[in-house]
Amino acid sequence: MAVFSFHPVKAITTGEGGAVLTNDEEYYDKLKAFRQHGIIRPPDNSHGEWYYEMQMLGYNYIMTDFQAALGISQLKRLDGFIARRREIVKRYNEAFDEYNPYFDVPVTRAYVSSAWHLYPIRLKDACLQIKSEIFSRLRTQGVGVQVHYIPVYRHPYYRSLGYKDGLCPVSEDFYRREISFPLYPAMGDGDVERVIEGVTQVFESLHAV
């Protein structure tokens, strides 16, 4: 099974929700039942055409028609959305190449063609102790930064189940370093340049930190 999110910040959106794809017929039948309270309609209709059964505990995960219509219209624009994301990433990479002493920009392998859902930079060691200050300064400059993501097992619910720090050291190190810069298809060239200007002002000020 492959799971897709159609959250508003993803490559396409239906407002919220997502989809599950599978090429396994058994999984397909279970997914259909699970999305609608565990309900199935027996194929023989022996009880009448109205008859259905709840055979498992399921949920109400049915996408509305207008959400599906939005998703279909978004699919027609998907290539353009991704092309614009790649244009923005190219501009970011050009602008931030000189900031190597402070952070690494994201890279892709030669065999990868990224849709660039996020633009995650990774702070160098010298900046780790002031990550919170860098984040706040960027926000003050109007740069809508975020951190993606807090390792799941660090949340209180999973800690209560016994999960402890150190379980995934690479993920934890990435979390310590990561800051995401704004990246979405509706960004105009002026928006991109304002992000670059804000990042420039913040990291150039680090000389005085």
What does it look like?
- It is a single chain.
- The protein is 38% helix and 11% strand.
- It has helices at 25-34, 65-75, 78-96, 131-140, 156-160, 169-177, 189-204, and strands spanning 2-5, 18-21, 39-40, 53-54, 103-104, 119-123, 178-181.
- The N and C termini lie far apart (49 Å).
- The longest helix has 19 residues, at 78-96.
- With 209 residues, the protein is an alpha+beta fold.
- Helix 3 (78-96) runs parallel beside helix 7 (189-204).
Quickly describe the structure.
The protein is built from seven helices and seven strands, in the order E-E-H-E-E-H-H-E-E-H-H-H-E-H. It is α+β, with helices and mostly antiparallel strands and 209 residues long.
Defining key terms:
209 residues; Aspartate Aminotransferase, domain 1; two-stranded antiparallel ribbon
SSE string, helices as H and strands as E:
EEHEEHHEEHHHEH
Cα-to-Cα separation, first versus last residue: 49 Å
CATH architecture verdict of the largest domain: Alpha-Beta Complex
* Helix content range: 25-40%
Mean model confidence by pLDDT:
94
Over the alpha carbons, how many angstroms does the gyration radius reach?
23 Å
Sequence of strands across the biggest β-sheet: 5-6-7
Quaternary status: single chain
Q: Which class best fits the helix and strand makeup? A: alpha+beta
Task: State the CATH class of the largest domain.
Answer: Alpha Beta
Largest sheet: 3 strands, antiparallel
Note the beta-strand portion.
Answer: 5-15%
In CATH terms, what is the fold-level topology of the largest domain?
Answer: Aspartate Aminotransferase, domain 1
